[in-house]
Description:
- It contains eight helices and 25 strands.
- The protein has helices at about 5-20, 160-165, 190-200, 215-225, 265-280, 285-290, 310-320, 330-335, and strands spanning about 45-50, 55-65, 70-75, 80-85, 85-90, 95-105, 110-120, 130, 145, 150, 170-175, 180, 205-210, 240-245, 245-250, 290-295, 340-345, 350, 355, 360, 375-380, 400-405, 410-415, 420-425, 435-440.
- The strands form six sheets. The protein has a seven-stranded mixed beta sheet with strand order 14-15-16-17-21-18-22, with helices on one face. Strands 13-11-9-23-24-25 form a six-stranded mixed beta sheet, with no helix packed on it.
- Strand 24 (about 420-425) and strand 25 form a beta hairpin.
- The longest helix has 18 residues, at about 5-20.
- The protein is globular, with a radius of gyration of 21 Å.
- GO terms for molecular function: acid phosphatase activity; metal ion binding.
- It is an enzyme of class 3 (hydrolase).
Amino acid sequence: MSVIVQYFVIITHIIIIASAFKISSKSDDISTEIVQTDNKTQPQQIHLSLGDNPTQMVATWSTMSPTDTIVRYGVGQLVTVHMGTMTNFSNGVNHDQYIHSAIMDQLTPNTSYIYQVGSGNPNEMSKIYNFTTTPIGNNWSPRFCVYGDLGFINPQSYSRILSDVNKGMYDMIIHVGDFAYDLDSNFGDMGDKFMRLMEPIAARLPYMTSPGNHENAGNFSNYKNRFRMPNNDNQNMFYSYNVGPIHFISISTEYYFYVNYGLMQLLNQYKWLAEELKTANLPENRAKQPWIIVLGHRPLYCTNSDGNDCGIAADWLRYGVPFIHLLGIEDLLYLNGVDLAIWAHEHTYERMWPVYQEKVVNSSTPGQPYFNPKATVHIVSGSAGCQEDHDEFPQVEKDYSAFHSTDYGYSRMTVYNSTHLYFEQVSDDQKGKIIDQIWLIKTKHGSFLND
């Protein structure tokens, strides 16, 4: 079948199925009064992200009037000054904002820095924040806070996450989609409130993101403009980066559902993902970053009784376009030995047994399903807190569901070395109790085809 014919078949099937399967955000926009900032040139919504290489950190912030874009930084003193870029982003009537981004580079590994952003005018500079660069190489144990679906209203887990950050428990925050509920609501005012809420956390640690369905407005324009992820050729929608012994790959699951924004972006991502995984799985790259972890919003596996999320939608992601089974993700994960996949979207926590094609494929070691498992482990962590209800679980459980909870909470992950990864779920409802934990142990990494 020629490429042109394949594209035509894909488009035809998607149009037919999308018309029968209406996919939308789970709630309407929230109507709130726009809060006007008194000093429109004062930096706000400051957050960090990793740069294109380990010697960089990127600072991003907003003002409500145009200003110069400057970051000052150094070890103990603000001795280095860099200029950045400013973009005018309009969210609608009476809500223009100016999003600034500046790179701090030539950073020394494993070193604490201070920094300050603004226009350069003393009255238009932020408070001084600090961050610590990661160690060089892969022989260290990065620590992560991981969650999805955190809103401005009822951000249940926020205070506990902030407390963890104040204790120095993490090297990075990973937010796998659905911000603010929604970034674009009330002409972007809800997004501004949420990013101001996140500043005490995100201004001190890299805040790494993936797009969710609640970011879909205007072809994800708020998400694309408000964040600056590494290797940003694809406007933050899909990208990869290394942290210690881990190769992270972040994708947009939403391309499969918002086809009204164009099919080519889905095709481009799939082609990129296939090549990215193939490269990451090469022996020389697996030797440096043995762990491959995929991040995205909608899960390939979940068991909630929540409409089509864990049925048709999950099938579409796993196997691709129905009937012709093109562009499915799961075979790529299996072929290239993806160790762990982290999703959200369901407002719950759920851990799966190692699973492929809806069948459990545990380790061959009795009683140790996560010791050299024979397929990817999938985890859903979407219970951080928002104004929407939890997604309930059915009375009859799927075989591949190992543990689930409807408690509000978030996840912690530490990758200790090339063989041991620890993952736990924190219940905010139960005052920080650890309600689930696993050790994923891999003495060998690579394609599951050989197992």
